[in-house]
Amino acid sequence: MVLGPTTELLDPEFMNRLDQLEIVSRKIFRGKMRGERRSKRRGESVEFADHRNYVPGDDLRFLDWNIMARLDKLFLKLFLEEEDLHVSLLLDVSKSMDWGSPSKSLYVRRVAAALAYIGLSNFDRVSLYGFADGLTHQLAGVRGRRRMASVMEFLANLECEGVSNFAAACKQFAIRHPQPGILLVLGDFFDKGGFEQGFRYLLGRNFDLYAMQVLSPEEIDPQLAGDLQLRDVEDGDLAEVTISRALLNRYKRNLEAYCGSLKEYCTRRGISYLFTGTDTPFDQIILSYLRRRGLLR
């Protein structure tokens, strides 16, 4: 499935509302170049912060010669350091995401587009990755609002195909993206291999980690009845079932238990877990829910 025009992801009116927001982290991370975010570290930017006594080995370029002339003592000038904030978005583009009304695929891409826009507007370093059986697409290290067109094109042309292998994707991501920063994983987390191993690869990289589980209304409360043959959209497995009220209730209990285990796993390890159905208004997720969870302000 290829998405339509970029306005399907973000309309201009909504983008204007996003201009008032910024992505925030529970930590501040050092980037490869000076960015727009001031740190309490002392560095070499142009904004003066403080003095300290000179010690042998310090860079003589930062001696304060005016104080030297007045006090006959050596003091070093300190400056506020500026840093990049790395914001990475890891999107599930396996076949199971092409499901629901509206589809899970469209929903997570809209979330990714909004967060990328907010990050680029604040000169954060933004990277986007699609994954199925490993990483399948990437747009890494873009910065500045002028790159939003590239982000829109990247998201609009992603296709949902293949089987999900969350562990393989996370392992590849951890290798390719060693910089610490904010990482948001968006998907349904329906992976026969489970989610634990994938998160272990990410937890070892000191990311400020968020997991957003997105399900369709049809998955949360299926409206099915009778004798059916169900096919797994990713690997083609078939199951012949007779849908009864008791079976639907058991399905809902199993789904609730699975989502609960994912939430508990994340909570115990400092991962911020978020759940939404695609019938939840998109602007509510961005403008309200993510702000309450501390990702945006």
The number of distinct helices, counting runs of at least 4 residues, comes to 9
Strand content: 25-35%
Rg measurement, Å: 23 Å
Low-confidence spans:
1-5, 29-36, 38-45
Mean of residue pLDDT values: 85
Strand order of the largest sheet: 5-4-3-6-7-10
Whole-number tally of structural domains? 2
**First and last CA, distance:** 33 Å
Q: How would you summarize this macromolecular structure in one to three sentences?
A:
The chain has 297 residues and is of the alpha/beta class. The chain has helices spanning 12-18, 65-71, 104-121, 148-156, 166-176, 196-203, 217-220, 245-268, 282-292, and strands spanning 37-53, 75-83, 86-92, 125-132, 134-143, 182-187, 208-215, 226-231, 238-243, 272-277.
What does this protein look like?
The protein is an alpha/beta fold. The chain folds into 2 domains: 6-29 and 85-218 and 273-292, Rossmann fold; 37-83, no CATH class. It is built from 9 helices and 10 strands. It has helices spanning 12-18, 65-71, 104-121, 148-156, 166-176, 196-203, 217-220, 245-268, 282-292, and strands at 37-53, 75-83, 86-92, 125-132, 134-143, 182-187, 208-215, 226-231, 238-243, 272-277. A 6-stranded mixed β-sheet has the order 5-4-3-6-7-10, sandwiched between helices. A two-stranded antiparallel ribbon has the order 1-2. It has a two-stranded antiparallel ribbon with strand order 8-9. Helix 3 (104-121) links the parallel strand 3 and strand 4 (125-132). Helix 3 (104-121) runs antiparallel to helix 4 and helix 5 (166-176) packs parallel to helix 6. The chain is elongated.
